[in-house]
Amino acid sequence: MKRADALESIYDDLKETIVVTNMGAVAVELYNLGHQPGFFYMEHSMGLASSAGLGLALSLPDTKVVVLDGDASVLMNLGTLSTMARCNPGNLTHIIFDNESMLSVGGFPTATATGTDLEAVARGAGAPNTGTYSDIATFQGAYTKAADRDEFSALVAKVEAVGPTSFAMDIGLLENRFEFARHIRNLRSD
Ligand SMILES: [Mg+2]
Questions:
Q1: Please, are residues 147 and 64 in contact by the beta-carbon 8 Å criterion?
Q2: Could you report the per-residue pLDDT of 78-125, keeping only the tens digit for each?
Q3: What is the 158 CA–ligand 1 centroid distance (Å)?
Q4: Whole-angstrom distance, CA of residue 139 vs CA of residue 115
Q5: pTM (two decimals)
Q6: Do 134 and 158 touch, CB atoms closer than 8 A?
Q7: How far is the CA of 96 from the centre of ligand 1 (A)?
Q8: How remote is the CA of residue 114 from the centroid of ligand 1, in Å?
Q9: Strands (E), 25-164
Q10: 182 C-alpha vs ligand 1 centroid, how far in Å?
């Protein structure tokens, strides 16, 4: 399964949610499907997309929040899983695209290439709903159930270590930051 195809399979739903992405390829691949004001690309803060997503989910309890993360990012902030599980926001879905590689910085193998099972870590941390998926249909089905469930879900999508041909995005970090903040303010005032 390619991450870009997995993203495309759930994009229509993501358009209606708040999405926080990890840095690197996943941000570009989501952007290439079509930018939305509720998409925040967490560049230059590797490992912290899930922490930001948790804060947003807790402060916007009536809004679905999806974190699009990577194996290397989760591995460098494993404590995030126990914090998310403990808070258990029903509006938060954590998707971990596991390509067993630090693809965006050169393709070095991560610990998931040598035995670390991030679904097992999430389950052990107390996440009430977890799963590992390696094909589009089961991933899409699991995402739909997770998004509708009133509990925190951590979904691991095993994907190929391939990314976009270009990392160019026609939106600046500050532009994204201010647009996203305005979008959040509008949600809170609705
Ligand atoms: Mg990776």
A1: yes
A2: 999 999 999 999 999 999 999 999 987 888 999 999 999 999 999 999
A3: 10
A4: 21
A5: 0.97
A6: yes
A7: 9
A8: 13
A9: 39-41, 65-70, 92-98, 101-102, 108-109, 129-133, 153-158
A10: 31
